[in-house]
Every structure is written in structure tokens, then in C-alpha cells.
Amino acid sequence: MESIGMAAFEPATMLAEDWRDGLFLGRIETPEGPSPVLVSNGVLHDMSRVAPTASQLVADRAFDAAAGRALGELGGDAGWPKLLSPVDLQCVKAAGVTFAVSALERVIEERARGDFARAAEFRAGLEARIGGGIRGVKPGSAEAMALKDALIEEGVWSQYLEVAIGPDAEIFTKSPVLSTVGWGADVGIRSDSSWNNPEPEIAILADSHGEPVGATLGNDVNLRDFEGRSALLLGKAKDNNASCSLGPFVRLFDDSFTMDDVRAAEVDLLIEGEDGYVLKGHSSMDQISRDPVDLVTQAMSEHHYPDGYILFLGTLFAPTQDRDEPGRGFTHKVGDVVTISTPKLGRLVNRVVHSKSAPAWTLGITGLFQNLHARGLIAA
């Protein structure tokens, strides 16, 4: 059915600009079940006989695509297979409040108690009082602690400012293992949310030792009204059916793509509504207040993730553009098409629905291993 944003779902538009030069990890749906794949020199390779899961592929550093089964060039002999989220058994973590703008917006949500109608009255005053200060300090530094003391004295301190400029980053679990969705899938918002937004981010894939191995795009869908009422509602704000998308592929670090490319990335956001509404946003990763490697390290902490983890790095984007009437700001409507893009990682495209209307998440860990065993990919 033709509708606004349909062009965004053309598979050829998903790829990085230099996709024939990089090495990409992903997962596809096959008639037998999900399979990890590598894209090397533009050719798609099924790696399921080398390693049955993306997690195992990373653990073994089995990145020699020639060891897999060549399916052909993407869009050529290989066609355009159905893409799944590029991760499977990895834990899905996220870092919050890593940009000054997002820190201010979290404080605004808190002050407005999750009521979008009250947000505008707090925004201008708060930006004037602490916007410049929070942008100019390194988290955890002596200058940051001095700013904290001053803000406490002024009565504008917040738990969100603690993780914005304090020594410890906010790291939380975004969604369960295997629950993420990929390019082209529906993303879900709760039907009882009236103030929500996408969070366009870069996510770093790390192995079980906390070593970064690659990066991808992600949408950390967020319910601002829930989290704004109480930070203790973060789980309900973040973890819902189809509320986390990743993809299209993880670009593995090599000579053509390094962590410095992540640090310098420019991430664009486009929201196209069926009502004709269009919103454009932009995040410059060089404005992040904590280095990506530091965030990956803090996510690892003293914990051990035997199947590795993927970490959302946070977003500069904080949607304040009015949608329906002055002062109401932005919130999603069902049917919105969300496109997140950056040249080195490609484009992640999803359509917004209510979580209860999104396809049910049914293939859990038990089901996955039953499937892999039935296919002869793992022993009994």
C-alpha cells in the first residue's frame, strides 16, 4: 500500500555509502530460521555453518566471509533478504544523558512531571540558567563538581544532572536478549503514552571482554511521559514490545572504519507522518560528553557478559518542534516513518505502531536453540 515514506523502505537505500569497502555483520530470516551473515566486498555470505549465532561469530572472530556460503551480491544474485536485528544473544544496554541537550530535556521532563504541556514553560529558563555551564565541563572533573555545588545551591540540581556531569554514566538495560527488531520492521510505542519520541543513536557492539568490535544504528524508542513522572518508570518507558531497533548491519572495525569514525559521525533523523508532518533532526557525535570507549567500559564495569553486549551511546536529539498546536511539542503518531542515517553505517528505517499492534515477539532463547538444533547447527 502506497503511503508517506514508502521510498524509505527501498532496500537499496539501507546501505552505507562505501558498503563494498567495509565488512558488515548482520542476521537474515531464511526459510529454515535466522542466520548470521557477513557482507564482504558487497557479497552476502551465510555464516550459520561457521557459527550459528551472531554472538558466536563475534566470540570466535570468525570474520572470514569466504568460510561461509556465498549468496551473491546484495541486490544482485542475493536479492534483498529479510533483515533481522544484527544481534541475537548479546545483552542490549544503553547509556543515557550523554549529551548536554538530552540532559536538559530529562530535567525538563522531571520538572514537568511527564506533562508535555508544561514542558515549554521550563525549557527557556532552564537553558538560560545551566545550558552553557553543562556544555563546558568534562564529566567527573573538578569543574563539574564545582558546577554541581553551584546548581545545588541554586535549587536546580537533578538526578539527571548527576549522570550528565558526575563521574558515573547512566547505563541501563534497554531490552531483553532477542527482543530487538531490524531494518524495515515496525517499532512500538505504548498505546497509553501521549508524549514519546525516537532516539536516534549509534550503538557499539562489544565482545564478552568488553572489546568494541563494530557499530550500528539504533532507535532507543522512549516514552517521555512515563519517565518524566518518575525515573523509576524507566523500565516501562524503555522496554516494550518492538521498542528497540538496530541495523541495518553492524559495521565491523577495520582499516576502513574505526572508532574515530564513530566519534566524528553525523547522525540524521527524518520523521514523516501520515498527516504530512515532517521533522528533521541531527546529532553530531563530537558533542558527546563522554568518549564512546569510556561508555563501553562503564557498561562492562565488573560484570561479565559471556555473549557480549551492544551499547546505545545516547543522542543529542531532543524533539521540541510543535506538531499539533503551539507549545505541545512533538510526539509520535501511528504510521510515522522514522529514518536514522549516517554515511558510514547506512540507514535504519522503521514505521511506528502501538506496541500491542506490532508483531508479537515469539522466538525466545529456548526456541532459537531448538531451531538451531533441528537445523543441525548445534549438537544435542
Structure report:
With 380 residues, this protein is an alpha+beta fold. Helix content is 25%, strand content 27%. The protein has ten helices and 18 strands. The chain has helices spanning 54-59, 100-112, 116-135, 142-154, 159-165, 224-229, 234-238, 259-263, 292-300, 365-374; strands at residues 23-29, 34-40, 43-46, 69-73, 83-84, 91-96, 170-175, 186-189, 196-197, 200-206, 212-220, 222-223, 244-252, 266-272, 278-284, 309-312, 337-342, 346-354. Helix 2 runs antiparallel to helix 5. The protein is globular, with a radius of gyration of 21 Å. The relative contact order is 0.19. The model has no long low-confidence stretch (mean pLDDT 90).
The ordered string of helix (H) and strand (E) elements is EEEHEEEHHHHEEEEEEHHEHEEHEEEH
- Approximately how much helix is present in the residues? 10-25%
How many DSSP E strands? 18
How much of the sequence is in beta strands?
A: 25-35%
Main β sheet profile: 11 strands, mixed
Quickly give the structural class.
Answer: alpha+beta
- Rounded to an integer in angstroms, the radius of gyration calculated over CA atoms is 21 Å
In angstroms, what separates the terminal alpha carbons?
Answer: 44 Å
Number of helical segments with 4 or more residues: 10
Approximate shape: globular
Oligomerization status of the protein chains = single chain
Low-confidence stretches: none
Average pLDDT for all residues: 90
